Amino acid sequence: MVEEIIISSPARLHFGIINPFRKDLRLYLGAGLAVNRPRVEIVVRKNRELSFRGPRSEEVWMKLRPLIEKYGLRKGEVEIRKTIPKHVGLGSTTQLLLSVAKGLLTVNNIFFDIEEVSSILGIGRVSGVGKYAFQYGGFIVDSGVKGKDSTKLYLRLRFPESWRFIVVIPEGRGLSEEEENRVFAADEDIPESLIHEASYHLFVEIIPSLIEEDIEGFSTGLEKLQLIVGKMFSRYQGGVFSKNSQIIVDVLKKLGVKGVGQSSWGPAVYGVIPPGENAEEVKTRVSRIVNGDVLIVDPDNQGAIMVG
């Protein structure tokens, strides 16, 4: 039995959901990218009793109870060292829960399947980007759902290492899990034409541009996708982007940043930094204008890393 393991998992940028509301069609189908910062870092040690400590430890304990009962987990000391900021659009809860689950199951010498664990924890019912970013890293497209199935992996591509992103996290927060569930349960009759447009931008512009390493085509397609997805959610976030996100989107576009969008519910906003452009200079210019955390991040093509 393993005595101690360390797990580090990446944040993810969520680029959008193709069909959030039309239940007569395949629902959801999301796309996004694992990025190297910020990260979750946890340590799980062999222990006679089950214990949790560190930031969000009580929340993690409560949300892991179905998994604990399912596998009879009674041993293991969980230390949460680092977390991704919560409710800012970077997938913090999914990464944290999957990291702790993987650590506990590993120190208890229990073989597990990521799909089964995600299902027990309620992860991936709407978007599978987070769970596959954890598992594989890279650029992810999930299958969406038809009926009551959970999302499956549709496509995973290695993202060019030289394409970087600026990520700005302003004040405010996105929706909680409970608020999000109420939105997706709503009977929102969006035009089918918007779903077709979103599909076109993802499958005809973004993915081929990524395969061809055409950063301009990728960035242009991403901005178009964001505008369509934002229209679908405008009723729930006060516009194409949330209020705090819109301010950052405007700043980045004014500075000439391409591929600008809101990650999930925001308020985190991202933009593409092409090879050859001085990322730190862009960061400095943005930091002088906006209030909030400004990060330069790289694609993460590995997913969660376990040592021990």
From TrEMBL:
| Name by which UniProt lists this protein | Beta-ribofuranosylaminobenzene 5'-phosphate synthase
EC number per UniProt: 2.4.2.54
Q: Which family does it belong to?
A: Belongs to the beta-RFA-P synthase family.
- What is the organism field in this record? Thermosphaera aggregans
- Keyword flag Glycosyltransferase: yes
Assembly and partners are described as: Homodimer.
Q: Which reaction does it catalyse?
A: 5-phospho-alpha-D-ribose 1-diphosphate + 4-hydroxybenzoate + H(+) = 4-(beta-D-ribofuranosyl)phenol 5'-phosphate + CO2 + diphosphate
Task: Report domain GHMP kinase N-terminal positions.
Answer: 67-120
- One Pfam family of this chain: GHMP_kinases_C
| Alphabetically ordered keywords of this record | Glycosyltransferase, Kinase, Transferase
Keyword Nucleus on this protein?
no
Pathway-wise, it operates in: Cofactor biosynthesis; 5,6,7,8-tetrahydromethanopterin biosynthesis
Q: What does this protein do?
A: Catalyzes the condensation of 4-aminobenzoate (pABA) with 5-phospho-alpha-D-ribose 1-diphosphate (PRPP) to produce beta-ribofuranosylaminobenzene 5'-phosphate (beta-RFA-P).
User: Boundaries of each GHMP kinase C-terminal domain copy?
Assistant: 207-288
Single GO molecular function: beta-ribofuranosylaminobenzene 5'-phosphate synthase activity
According to the UniProt record, what class of enzyme is this? transferase
Taxonomic placement: Archaea, Thermoproteota, Thermoprotei, Desulfurococcales, Desulfurococcaceae
